[in-house]
Amino acid sequence: MRTTQEIVESIDNRLRELDDEIKTLDAARAALGTRENPPAPRRPAAVTKRPRPARRTSKAVTADRIEALLSANGGLTTAALAEEMPGNRDQVLALLRQLETAGRVRRTGQRRATRWHTITDEDRIRARAAELEATRKRPA
């Protein structure tokens, strides 16, 4: 059974691999000479405020859209999600609570500092490992 440290190292390795792949793909795009769809600017992890979009899209507020935004941004506040959606904050919050009940998202923080995050496979593995560790019989 893998330890928590091994899981963390595995996640870090995968993130490094993905960053390398992104760099390779960006270089390939540049080599092709097409800049019709330039890469989206990367947000530093420390940035918490998102600029208000110029106009809202015609897409409906759905649980899948919320999950996609959370996955792409590593976690957002309800207000930031509401800015990205055509619906209002109450609609977004209701969907977030449904997703939380279904075990697809989790929240951290309290009140205005609450941020929503998707639950990844790594999170599920970590929770299961902790559960197994807690139930493991210890030698007397």
In the CATH hierarchy, the architecture of the largest domain is Orthogonal Bundle
Please work out how many helical segments DSSP would assign. 5
Q: What is the tally of beta strands?
A: 2
User: Outline, from the CA principal axes?
Assistant: flat
Contiguous low-pLDDT stretches (5 residues minimum) are 54-58
Q: What is the ordering of alpha helices and beta strands?
A: HHHHEEH
Structural class: mainly alpha
Average pLDDT number = 76
Helix content: 40-55%
Q: Nearest-angstrom radius of gyration?
A: 19 Å
Q: What this model shows, in words?
A:
With 140 residues, this protein is mainly alpha-helical. It has 2 domains: 1-42, no CATH class; 53-140, Winged helix-like DNA-binding domain superfamily/Winged helix DNA-binding domain (Arc Repressor Mutant, subunit A), CATH 1.10.10. Helix content is 54%, strand content 6%. The chain has 5 helices and 2 strands. The protein has helices spanning 4-32, 63-73, 78-84, 89-101, 121-135; strands spanning 105-108, 115-118. A two-stranded antiparallel ribbon has the order 1-2. Helix 3 crosses helix 4. The two termini are 21 Å apart.
